[in-house]
Amino acid sequence: MAYEKAHDLLDLAIWMQSGRDGVSLKDIQQRFNVSRRTAERMRDMILERFPQAEVAPNGENNTKRWYIPQGTLKDFIQYSSEELAALEISKKLLLKQNMSSQAQILDGAINKIKASMKPDVLRLIGTDAEAMVESSIFVLRPGPKLKIDTNILKTIQDAIVSLKRIKIDYFYEHNQKTNFAILDPYGFLFGERNQYLLAHHSDGYYGDEVHLFMLNNIKKVEILSDPLKVVPEFNLQSYAAQSFGIYQEEPFEVEWLFDKEVADEAARYIFHPSQTVKHHTDGTLTVKFKAGGAKEMDWHLYTWGNHVKVIKPEDWNKRKKHD
What we know:
Elements: H1 3-17, H2 25-32, H3 36-49, E1 54-55, E2 66-67, H4 81-96, H5 100-115, H6 119-134, H7 150-162, E3 164-172, E4 177-190, E5 195-201, E6 210-214, E7 218-227, H8 236-241, E8 252-258, H9 263-267, E9 276-279, E10 285-291, H10 294-302, E11 308-312, H11 316-322
Antiparallel strand pairs: 1-2, 3-4, 3-7, 4-5, 5-6, 8-10, 8-11, 9-10
């Protein structure tokens, strides 16, 4: 068997052990970019070599999914220098983005991986991993990085996981005062400039809507015994997708026309998950999507200078002034 095929089979086996949801033939096709017939052969080879493999229960739409019980591959799993380097680079990126709590968690996972490796193997691949990390330099937009108390972030995360309400002491910038609020916490939004808690006032205050609270303005947090109010129709991903950035407002139709000098560059961007892109015969490029967040759109458009024209909304200049 060719080395590449053996490597793919081992990757597939590890993937099949990584969770009880299992792996379907379609998953194999997409991940390894193979035909269905090849996916079937790969599955059959795994089932032949690992008879412990089982069919996952309750497959979605009656789709068969296979998994390998935990612990079966413990003697086969090894880590590469590229994998260690990728984790270390991810940690650096988190720190650069002021996400120190997540960086600390990832650092703990990295240490556990290293502790599970044989010393001679760790020395061998660790040197290569360090070289890869040192060769990676991150250039991020300059600007102030707001310091966030990692203990506060961890406490809020615990409340979300345990479905509990929280009481916070919050500094309100508009009146320069600190007041308490009792919230139902739902999740976090990590923006380029600020980081926010998405929460709902438990007493229905302020229109009974989900609001953003700047994490660095939360001075104290306490987990309460009361269960938080679960809103079935609220989805964090859908909420974030309503806006071009962090700011939430009623979504509107957006159409930008990039001139031919920057069209190729603009085509490489994903401005919004819902966008559609059209190349024109004159070399220009049209990007359309629907979202709110006029202020952040304006900040981004500024970086393109005179190479982009706002076609929609037609009242763009008026909208900017009143945003």
